[in-house]
Amino acid sequence: MPIVDIHTHVYPPSYMQILESRSTVPYVRSFPPSNSSRLFVLPSEDPPSTTSTGRPIGPEYYDIAQKIAFMDTHKIDISVISLANPWLDFFPSSGAAAAAEALNNDLNATCDKFPGRLFAFGALPMSASVEEIVSKIKRLSGMKYMRGVVMGTSGFGKGLDDERLNGVWAALEETGQTVFLHPHYGLPKEVYGPTGGEEYGLVLPLALGFPLETTIAVSRMLLSGVWDRYQGLSVLLAHSGGTLPFLAGRLESCIAHDGKLHREGKIANRRTVWDILQKNILLDAVVYSEVGLKAAVDVAGADRVLFGTDHPFFPPLEENGEKGEWLSVTTNYKAIKDAFGPGEVEKVEGLLGGNAVRLLRLEV
Ligand code: URA
Ligand code: ZN
To answer: Name one GO biological process term (predicted).
Structure first.
């Protein structure tokens, strides 16, 4: 059974050029005399303070040969690559559709260089019109290596419960493409304390802001009835659904006890959180612990959780001079192995790759 990584990013060279040409987030710059590049991409890194130094960024982000080498080191047979955050969200609306088309062509051509080893989630021009987005979704469905789209949580700037997104959900459902829903925007800095939590590096926005952002975004989709209207819409949640597996019961209970929703008739024919979790939501296994992984498997089912790495983020620290296997990857492998007993080999194989091959149709 192949090992498949469904959460693995790239910034293609053309996108890198854009990052290098910018001086506001998102951007890439160096700090002379050092000529090595640093990435500033998160809203919490904006504006840059004197102590924020971003993260190192090198060819592992844009050189596909390095992705393949990483796959070989970690025994990954197939990767489903996606543009990393913030995707095309910051593009002016006028050029966004053309940029998406060029980028998706580029990703598809990259996959074609390694047939059978690479597939991709395409990028959408979220600052363009609904019609342009829908036309890009339809185009992606005819591209050989595309299996869905990667998307942030902002939609048209107002979140994913925005009714203006109905046409987008309908097109994705109709073409059978999976949405890979990924965080970027986090939480307002103030929740991290008077300094915005800067004294703790990027720990608070990445460890907590990202998963909570995903949890809130998917809860709003659910509450606004997206999955009541589009019952075949499949959404793969990054980082094992943020905190959704842990909070699903509370979410369901708060819905059942909400007088306003009840009075307005909004809960009469709704599908439950549990039902949606089992039929429409896929969870990645990028959660770094047996506890989190078991929760993901409990709510979505072992046949709907999919291995991922988040490469090239979370590399071994330069400061420690670590080489070889990445701790961020071995931690996730270990969590999967520890979560299942000796009689559950089939579940482990499914989670590591079989589920992805089946659900994303990963045959050339
Ligand atoms: N940091 C990011 O900015 N993106 C990821 O996907 C992971 C870590
Ligand atoms: Zn990621």
So the answer is: secondary metabolic process
